[in-house]
Design a protein that fits this description.
Blueprint: E1 6-11, H1 15-25, E2 30-35, H2 38-47, E3 52-56, H3 57-60, H4 64-75, E4 81-86, E5 103-106, H5 110-135, H6 140-147, E6 155-167, H7 170-174, H8 179-199, E7 203-208, E8 211-216, H9 225-249, E9 257-270, E10 278-281, H10 283-294, E11 299-303, H11 304-310, E12 314-324, E13 329-339, H12 345-351, H13 359-373, H14 383-399, H15 404-416, H16 429-439, H17 447-458, H18 469-478, H19 487-500, H20 507-521, H21 527-553
Parallel strand pairs: 1-2, 1-3, 3-4, 4-5, 9-11
Antiparallel strand pairs: 6-8, 6-9, 7-8, 9-10, 11-13, 12-13
Length: 554
Amino acid sequence: MTNKFLSILIIESDDNFAKSLENSILGNGNNPIRVPSLEEGLNSISEKPIGLILINLECFSLQIKQFVHRVNSTYNYQSPWIIGYVSDEGKIDKSFFNLNLSDVWLTGSFHFIREKIENWKHIYFEKRRVTNFLKHLYPENVLASFFEQKQPEPTKIESAVVMFMDFVEFSFKTKELKPTRVARKLTKYFNRFDEIINRYHLEKIKTIGDAYMVTAGVTEKKPFPELRMCLAALEIQSFMRVQKSVDRAFNRDFWEIRIGIHTGPLVAGVIGKTKFHFDIWGDTVNIAARTEKASRANTILLTESTRNLVQEYLTLIKDKSIVIAKRGGNINLFELTGILPEFDKKDCLSLVEIEKIEFKRVRHFIINQLKSILPSKCTYHSLNHSLDVEKAVLRFATIEGLSNHEKILLRTAALLHDIGFAVKYETNENLALQFADLHLPDFGFEKEDIELIKGCILATELNAIPMNKMAQILCDADLDYLGRDDYYELVAKLRQELGNYNQYFTDADWICFQLNFLEKKHQYFTQSAIQILGYYKQKRILEIKKNLSLLARN
């Protein structure tokens, strides 16, 4: 079974034909969704990510142009492929080719349609791969211009924030090191900086040697760009201090960073015709660079223009001034030392609309716990199983259109749901709930978040019924292997595990045990799992019945 799930929207007023078309494309990770009208099609598009749209041109040709426009407006440059179909070649009208459709098909053969869908599916994922790569190079608005085949024009920004960082005495500290070792160490630090910058919805402009340049308030629409930049700087500063402590403990040479931030007008855009990249220009950029050079090791300096915008929330100390000869005056600088006592980090994150949960940290913590406390007898309910479920919930959460916050909660529930196996083999979900209550608040989870996670975990109990979409997704992901190619490998591990806990089966009993579970006890809950995994589950049932017949004959 392919790992590439794709939702395919079928807009067809004839229910019988729609069902036949749906059945013809089931399997291979396809999730067909049937609707009888364009309006309901637009509703589906607003709820879930759609990769391919099939429309009956004979029924809807007069409204399709407006429909295509609305779809493109919804998805911007990541629009799904829209394909029209007719039942007979004589019904193909020249006007169909002016509707901005990706293709026009005849529906004479469902086998032909299935092959064509696989071709377009390949193109869809290839386009998505290229788009995701480009998203690491250019801001969203620049990418949109490229896909519209327009040259993005440079734009004047009246108030933007620029941050420069570099490593103190970098040339001196690296002169004896091999270039490959320097590159590896820079990559380690820059990768962590990238994670922090992305979390605060800032725009990394470029790195030059050991220097790292970031802007805010230029490409994104999140509030309080100055505060977001300062919070990111504090997080980077904290990371570097921890790294310094670790390096000192191991008697290793350590690197230190200095940071400068300034706010003011600038010009942003893409220039040139080859090897172009997004950049920013103006006095604001130069002053930010000067501020960084005036800073000291592990120190964050702000100019007065930035300080005036964040002093209500942050602790600042008057530092020094720098002379700006071009302007004929001085600019006062202030050291940023932290958040004011009357605020905490959660307050600031709420203000700037940033996710408060530190998912990377909690994920690392839970995985380390699972590694250290799960017994070796758990050959099926192992760390690998929890990681498999985490991957599966992410796939289904994406195809079901869940928010990023809901995905974080689901991934946390997936990692936690089997941690109780460390203590007891059966009815151990309550142990996972206790773990959640005890540890998750330390990683930024609110009480409501923890209750949602606990509800999802409880839904994985035997014979439990999930009460909401998130719980349904976790239940489906927990047993997605029933429709996977590695089914027999995983059930062999389950049989071994049950034997480790003194539950033994003959070969015939084991086959009957699987068949009874698949046919009578298990069900998928989300529409996408029913469509994608249910197809393979039915094939699995037929295979197991065949194995049982062969065993009986022998």
